[in-house]
Amino acid sequence: MHTLKKRTTVLLMGIGLGLTMACKDGENTVKENSEEISTQATVSQEIEAAIDLPGHMVEGEKVYTQHCLLCHQSNGAGVPGLNPPLKGTEYVVGDKDRLLEIVLYGSNVGLLVNGSVYSNAMPAFKMLGDEDIANVTSYIRNSFGNAADPITADEVVAIRSKIKE
Ligand code: HEC
């Protein structure tokens, strides 16, 4: 018991000494560090502005709730035999063009999703705006345990003109 106390005191003194020494050549290091941190912050703000995943997620969830939830469910699990899941499927996290085509123009071909075929038809959503489509597809690519890069409105425009609505 006694020895333990002594050891702890010695250890604490050691830490105290280390800290004092670290502070001595302190000012410069602190300055450099804070400069580095602020540069990092600017870079990540720029990346965020370009991708804006949080914005996609908030807006995308609204579109999902209004237009997709009924069939694909709030947890993206779908309904067995009727509507496929959006959780971990290659259509959701894979090729962006294929995903956009399904969401914009619907699908009734009996897609094989994770080993099963579903009997309902997926309606077309081309009447939704480019931002809404970008937001909802980005939302499903980053919900239900999915993690894939988001989709921009420009990518939606590109698919629309490729298909020539
Ligand atoms: C009326 C029910 C219904 C609604 C509403 C609906 N879907 Fe679907 N969805 C389906 C069905 C059924 C399929 C399978 C179609 C097929 O077999 O060709 C499907 C397939 C999909 C697929 C590809 C397969 C997969 O599971 O990965 C994606 C992605 C998808 N839907 C996303 C959406 C999104 C996003 C919305 C909302 C904008 C939406 N769906 C609204 C029924 C629906």
Strand order of the largest sheet: 1-2
Biggest sheet features: 2 strands, antiparallel
Total DSSP helices: 8
CATH superfamily of the largest domain: Cytochrome c-like domain
Unreliable stretches: 1-31
Q: Give the DSSP E fraction (strand runs of 2 or more residues).
A: under 5%
The CATH topology assignment of the largest domain is Cytochrome Bc1 Complex, Chain D, domain 2
- Structural class, by secondary structure, is mainly alpha
Percent of residues in helices: 55-70%
Give every kind of bound small molecule, once each: heme C
How far the N terminus sits from the C terminus, by CA atoms, comes to 81 Å
What would you call the shape? Answer: globular
Overall tally of structural domains: 2
CATH class of the largest domain: Mainly Alpha
Can you name the CATH architecture of the largest domain?
Orthogonal Bundle
Describe the structure.
The chain is mainly alpha-helical and about 160 residues long. The protein has two domains: about 1-50; about 50-165, Cytochrome c-like domain (Cytochrome Bc1 Complex, Chain D, domain 2, Orthogonal Bundle). Helix content is about 65%, strand content about 0%. The chain is built from eight helices and two strands. A two-stranded antiparallel sheet has the order 1-2. A hairpin with a 2-residue loop joins strand 1 (about 110-115) and strand 2 (about 115). Helix 3 (about 55-65) packs across helix 7 (about 130-140), helix 6 (about 95-105) crosses helix 8 and helix 7 (about 130-140) crosses helix 8 (about 155-165). The longest helix has 26 residues, at about 25-50. Bound molecules: heme C. Heme C binds near residues 71 and 102.
